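Bit of a strange request maybe. I'm writing a small parser for structure token strings and I need a real example to test against, not something I typed by hand. Could someone generate the tokens for this chain?
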Amino acid sequence: MKTIILVTISAFLLISFLWKRYSVTDQNSVIEATPDEISSLPADALYPAPKEGKWGYLNSHKTWVIPPVFEQAEDFMADRAVVAMLSSVTDTQFRFGLIDRSGRLVVPCIYERLDYSSEGMARAQKANLWGYIDRVGAVVIPFQYESAGPFSEGLACVSMNGLNGFIDTQGRLIIPPQFQRLASHFFFNEGRAMVYQADKESAEKAAFIDKTGKFLLSPQFTYAENFREGLAVAQPLDSPYYGFIDQQGKWVIPANRYENAWGFSEGLASVAMLLPDKTAWHWFIIDKKGNLTTPGRPYRKVGSFVEGLAPVQDEQSRGWGFINRQGIEVIPTIYTGLAHFHNGLARMEIGSPLGELKIVYITKSGHVFWRQV
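Reply from user aminoacidic:
Good idea to test on real output. This should exercise your parser:
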């Protein structure tokens, strides 16, 4: 009996600790968005939001334009958004479809997974196989792939028999399957795609190819990311450090200092060094010449800049907030989860993962535009 009581007390203390650690701690400091902030939002913007367990869409006046009838809802991309509904009254399995800006289901919720791209094609999963549909739901490329990525610059990465290749929008195989890892992670950007290929010793190495499959930079990296704004994050073989290369493979920012890095966005990139005891990170912001634009900050994570702000996660509380281009924390790290800014607002989560999470939309000043009640 004593053991059971001790275990129960320990569990209670652990839950209490986690609840405090991973929940919002400054609820009383919330400031509502000003009329000027609200009037500056795009007039045609639609924001997915929950109400009584269902999701719909609010406009910039906080009016429900599309009623909350969906199980899940994603941001609009052009005139389409992915939504989810239950497959039946008695089923708990979500199925995904597409709606237009009026809320009309233009593609029924019949797919196991669905992702709409800016090029007017959606990759969809049905019966565990992937294919592609257009914006009205017509199957353009049959369901035949083990994995599939989004179309970008006219090509998409697909997986067949465990290897990845690239197809065009007609489903024609342009680059035969020969690359490793999950196809959904690879796509073309700035005329190049990062891929992984195994050598004779079966060690996977990162490389860059053009749209014919020709290697522009041979397999020579432990890790790399797609080019963004002319530079790509890369990690040399047998090195713990990350740097940035240009499209000819020249090291613009040498891989000799940073042990973590994100690609460039809006002219800036976030990079990090481990403290000497290897227990925590120190993050910096750099420009394209490698110059430090901010002092180091002891965050757990720092993401890429979107609309002038970058997400940051506090090392101790694990809360999320945002810094500006000068590295100043303009939105405190009090949120449990977040999404990047989109149409002037960021969709944040408050509460605890161990309890109820609620959605809050905030402005770039950190003021609350709308909150779930």
